[in-house]
Amino acid sequence: MKRHLCIVAAALLSIVSSAAETNASYLVEAEKMAHIGEFRLQKDAGCASGGYFLHAVRAGSVCRGIYDFPESGEYTLFLGNISYGGNTRRLRISLDGKEIGVAVDEIAGHLWSRVGEIKLPAGKHEIEVVSQGANARFDALLFVPVKGDPAPVETVELADHGAQFFCGKVDLKFRTDAKPFAECHCGNGIVFRFHPVCDGKTLTSGYLLYRFRGDDGQDASGRVPLDGKEVAITAKLAKPGFVWCHARLGDESGGTARWIDAKGELHDEEIVSSVGADEEKIPQIEEPGDFDNFWTTLKSELDAVPVEVQKEEVNGSDPEHYQTFAVRVSCAGPRPVTGYLVMPRGAKAKSLPAEVGFHGYGLHKHTPSAPRPGKIYFNINAHGMPLGKSDAFYQEFFAPLRGYAMHDGADAKTCYFHQMAYRVLRALQFVRTLPEWDGRNLVVSGGSQGGMQSLWAAAQDGYVSYCRISVPWNCNLGGETLGLIRPQGCDVEYFPALRYYDSANHAKRIQCPVEIERAGLRDTLCPPAAVARMYHNLKCPKKIVWIENNTHFSPLPDSRRHVYATPDFQGEKAVK
Fold it and tell me: Can you list the positions of beta strands (E) in 162-314?
């Protein structure tokens, strides 16, 4: 298929000279590569063509395809990507096994990155794209002739040899005989069952492609031909941990199948889930011997700074019934606590339970929070940023904080988590000064990084009465040095000094009830083995909800849930 593609980057146009030998450029769309491996298909209207791109959720993801170029030439290769900026997500491109170059996302947004120049003989060539960081996003490759017409370039969209497509809705139905806890042991078989259908009819052609990865070091792949029956594949674990099963539809060569729905939308289907064995025996690096002294010192340093508050009423989502305040609280460390306080209007003294909410990882503008009915709710950001400023202000404020979790990890007292911990504990101290607080009920909550902060709070502040979290981050740090699968995504480089902030170490010290509302059995950022280690370290009333085929983010509506709770867990109940 031929089309005209307007190249928007001036730098890209500048490489085209007026001495035209050929004006044909070649476009390779990411979503049409035959082998997409652990890249996942996603949609974005800003993409170069088709509106689709491939997203690598972990470093080392590989996609490849074979393309037939009709003519020889010298080309400059550009890669279209969707970037977060900061040189954090790189993609390496090779042709016929020889590296052409690495595309770097220098700025955030949709952009074409120059990869390099290449002489390309006519004929079939294998193109391979490898992510060198988690969350790399690959939109398209564009081969532009070094010599050509600077007018809009005629672009030939190359078809990939061997790509398999279905017409109709494909559903790779999945279940496992095992449950994540208490029922699987090392050496026993763990069965994963799949029933692939297209428009409700069982598929009788193609293959189920699978890969097993385990916390025992196993990494094995295979394929099973589809014959209209359920496909059952079995894995085992040699050591305590979890085994992951990645499954998708494909062809005999390993190409990934995609399907087109009635609206012409393109989809793929991948199931990833995991099952654990002997999780209570998952190894953990020994905590520092002075762990408690470290935190006692940190709290003493915080207490040396008086609690001074600046509070300004602002517009909230329900001003008739709730007051909303922008709050700044003095704190140890380089920045104060900042956040939004929401409470019912006209509340009497000592009448309200309180909740402090913590944010997930990231750098984003903090806006007023929705109220928690019948509660004081103080929602703080992780960075002590000034509130109510312009977008331009925040761009400048966030610039030096990019990758903040990786800053100075070798020193427990200078790493970013140290100042974050000051703010977590100071937020709780502030809430306890409010005359409306009932003096008994103090809940902490958050997901991911917010879950980690909530666990710190529950462990280190004796007033916390309940901890409600999801997908808690930084559990069992350094587990990869013990053979466990390393987190992928926003993972910190392990240093022994970070053990002071390990959620699994704090879990041992928590006495209030802990509710883990969601833990993903395909969460690569907070792997199930890490969360399981933290959960087993809890000696308080506790509950966890494991969700199959669930990443770090919201689960699919039909994902199966496994709920576990200790007999003494009663939920979030008022303390009498």
Answer: 164-167, 170-176, 190-198, 201-202, 207-214, 219-225, 231-235, 241-250, 257-260, 266-268, 270-277, 309-314
- Report the C-alpha gap between 178 and 189 in whole angstroms: 9
Decide: 342 and 369 in contact? Cβ < 8 Å.
Answer: yes
3-class SS at 232? strand
The answer to whether 104 and 86 are in contact (CB under 8 A) is no
Instruction: Find tokens 């991948």 and name the residue.
Output: 270
pTM for the complete prediction? 0.85
CA pair distance 131, 149, nearest whole angstrom = 33
456 vs 309: CA distance, rounded Å: 23
Q: What distance in Å separates the CA atoms of residue 267 and residue 52, rounded to the nearest whole number? A: 10
Taking CA atoms, 76 is separated from 250, 414, 564, in Å, by 32, 45, 56
What is the rounded distance in angstroms from the CA atom of residue 480 to the CA atom of residue 524? 13
> Are the CB atoms for 535 and 472 separated by under 8 Å?
no
Return d(Cα 287, Cα 566) in angstroms, integer: 25
Closest CA to 30 of 144, 163, 183, 120: 163
Nearest CA-CA partner of 8 in 157, 152, 156 = 152
Looking at residue 168, its pLDDT comes to: 74
Q: How many CA atoms lie within 13 A of 26 on its CB side?
A: 23
Distance of alpha carbon 456 from alpha carbon 444, whole angstroms: 10
Q: What's the token pair of residue 397?
A: 């404020």
Task: Return mean pLDDT, the chain.
Answer: 88
Give dist(CA 429, CA 307) in Å, integer.
8
Under 8 Å CB-to-CB from 558, ≥6 apart: which residues?
Answer: none
Alpha-carbon span 150 to 155, nearest angstrom = 13
For the ranges 9-23, 118-132, 158-172, 173-187, which has the lowest average pLDDT?
9-23
